[in-house]
Amino acid sequence: MTEARPPHHDTGPIDLRDIARAAMLERSLEPEFSRAALAEVAALPGAAVPGGNEAIADLRDRVWVSIDNDDSRDLDQLSVAEQLPGELTKILVAIADVDSLVAKGTAVDEHARVNTTSVYTAAQIFPMLPERLSTDLTSLNEGVDRIAVVIEIVVHADGTVARSDVYRAYVNNHAKLAYNSVAAWLESSAPAPERVLAVPGAEAQLRLQDAIAQRMRRQRFEHGALTLETLEARPVFDNGTLADLVPEGSNRAKQLIEDLMIAANGVSARFLEQKGFATLRRVLRSPERWAKIVTIAEGLGETLPEAPSNAALEAFLDKRRTADPDRFSDLSVSVVKLLGRGEYALDLPGQAAPGHFGLALRDYTHSTAPNRRFPDLITQRLLKAALAAEPSPYSHGQLAELARHCTLQEDNAAKVERRVRKSAAALLLSRRIGQKFDAFVTGASSKGTWVRIARPAAEGKVVRGFHGLEVGDHIRVELLDVDFERGFVDFGRA
User: Fold this and answer.
1) Is the peptide bond before 305 cis (omega within 30 degrees of 0)?
2) Which H or E run includes 358?
């Protein structure tokens, strides 16, 4: 999921953007592009064109669509589906060919390598690539011809993969769609979006994609993939001023894209392994804090095995989602924190990959968002080298170092986003000292006890009355104090 850079906003008496930029520098992230990088982009004549001997399929007549956030302009992927004989469905996922304009070793590539990701804050978005690239020349914008790396997945009626392939093709985005409006239509709570009705075949196309995505989703869950629901805090502006942080969860359209991208990332990993290439895998190891998850389950009257089991955990989560849907997102937050963060790891051909505990997958990489994640750009270069029967552009040692660096910078980016979100919350709460809120305990350790409130979506520290609180407790708190510049929100137990 990607977002466009928001317009200039006044966020209060102290500018949140200054805090965001300072947080970027503190975490070894570059908030600005170098002059050399900007000069490289300015010198580009236009979008990528193929070389004379390249075999590139022409798939522009397919009813490709993009589904993203309402204001997204950096479109990384398109999708299209086709019903085949024998109860088979072909899914095609087109990935923006960023590598064609961002060559390895250039100044633009160096900036992307340093930051490794776009950083999304409530004040400003710091894109991994200059906007002329990410929102124009390498974006799969509506109505323009683009070269893409296409991941083909043929799926059985039960959602299992029958066969797959990777190749390059010309594509054209026939409809730029948005998550919320597509989801409302798929969930039968609103009519079809205008762009869906305006493009012949788009309605049937999206119905087919949704149907097969749901089947693949059920297949993953049957194998132990975890159904976790976490809420993202989306900033809302009123006449240019920060007005709220609104919790925003998943929906049917987001699930559709998520399911297709998970399948595409699995195909990319297996394709490279079959070609004998070392890769960057995205892994989530077996959780070391499993005992704490067991304790949470016991507190809810459920039993989990002593050894980590994603199948048992998913059964527990599914039961709790049905029993208490209103608090399921709170439980999800607790489990996500205890599972730990994903990481990047070098995978050598023939080596047993650690796999992804949360997705219940052995073969998984990141390949579908090269405009905003550097590991995806690395994977794209590996895929293109494999397709051209060329050697890998990265040595094993380089990939191992990049795995470590990308994991570190992803964590730094998350800390920047969290730091700015805390200051934004402190700003919004500054006039509500003394008010009481329903809260959920998200962390409890020797370092402190933390709670989350819903509106505005904010997290703060319990500095009074925290003894005996455990992760997962629902309590009433009183807002005691805030510090906008440091991002502190202090609560007392009411």
Assistant:
1) no
2) none
Which residues contact residue 415 at a Cβ distance below 8 angstroms, ignoring those fewer than 6 apart?
A: 23, 27
Residue-wise pLDDT for 347-363, tens only, equals 998 888 789 999 989 99
Predicted TM-score (pTM) of the model is: 0.91
Average pLDDT over residues 103-127: 96
Tell me: the pLDDT tens digits for 127-178?
999 999 999 999 999 999 999 999 999 999 999 999 999 999 999 999 999 9
CATH domain 430-493 topology:
OB fold (Dihydrolipoamide Acetyltransferase, E2P) (2.40.50)
> Which residue do the tokens 């997945």 mark?
153
Q: How far apart are CA 16 and CA 487, in angstroms?
A: 10
Contacts of 309 (CB under 8 A, 6+ apart): 224
d(CA 416, CA 188): 38
The residue ranges of every structural domain in the chain are: 16-284+344-425, 290-340, 430-493
- Burial classification of residue 310, based on how many CB atoms lie within 10 Å of its CB (0-12 exposed, 13-18 middle, 19 or more buried): buried
The DSSP code for 95 is: E
**Cα separation, 271 vs 385, whole angstroms:** 12
Query: Backbone phi, then psi, for 386, in 5-degree steps?
Result: -65, -40
**CA–CA separation, 324 and 329 (whole Å):** 10
Q: Which band of pLDDT confidence, cut at 50, 70 and 90, is reported for residue 290?
A: very high
Provide the 3-class DSSP secondary structure of residue 334: helix
CB atoms within 10 A of CB 441: 21
Please give the angle made by the CA atoms of 348, 349 and 354, to the nearest 5 degrees: 55
* DSSP string covering 117-157: B-EE-SS-EE-SS-HHIIIIITS--BT-EEEEEEEEEEE-T
Where is 4: in which H helix or E strand?
Answer: none
Mean pLDDT of the chain: 91
